[in-house]
User: Fold this.
Amino acid sequence: MALDIARILLSSVDVLSKTDISQYALNTLQESSIKEVVICGRRGPLQVSFTIKELRELYNLQNIRAVSDLSDFNQIDDKLINGQTTGYYYVICTSGD
Assistant:
């Protein structure tokens, strides 16, 4: 849910106006002065609860800069990556600036 909220806060009103978001929300977002959204995880990359789709939608927005602490991935080895999903999270999370 946090990624969805961040995506809405960081999306342009023009883009959001083509969705089913309410006019009240659009008006509020248009008047908003939010310039930066910070998402901080409380656990490691193996415990994320968002989907790859949610993460990609956020990363596909303009002017997004992802910051990951690569040391969070030090304990991940081939034995822990037991499916492609975790591998995809790793690639997406470590490919930011």
User: Anything to note?
Assistant: The mean pLDDT is 78. The chain has one domain: 2-94. The helical segments are 2-10, 13-16, 23-31, 52-59, 84-94.
